Amino acid sequence: MGIFGGTKSTNTKYFERFLTEGEEIEAVYRLVVDEMCFTNKRIIFFDKNAFSTKKGKVSIPYRSISHFMIEDDGILDRDIEIKLIVHNEEFVLKFSKGCDFIEIEKLLTFYVCD
């Protein structure tokens, strides 16, 4: 599964309808097709199948993430990949250059390593 994308967004209204009691938005990142949201409880994003017009909402509680890895594609190509391992399933989130992956790593470390 993959998401391709970009930079931090200030558009939090879209995700507010998905929040539960006591849940707060930490950060939203703009992606090529959609956006992804980090809350104080989980990660929310939409997974669009390349061969279909359907897309599904994916909600991953931080407690379900066993580990994560951040890969830099190299010196010339500055795309960043973040891999989340959840119950032996891998979610690959692809961000283009300009994305502050250090901030994302800090968010993940804070909630996953709690």
Automatic annotation (TrEMBL):
Designated name of the protein: Bacterial Pleckstrin homology domain-containing protein
Cross-referenced Pfam families: bPH_1
Highest taxon of the lineage: Bacteria
Domain Bacterial Pleckstrin homology: residue ranges: 12-110
Lineage of origin: Bacteria, Bacillati, Bacillota, Clostridia, Lachnospirales
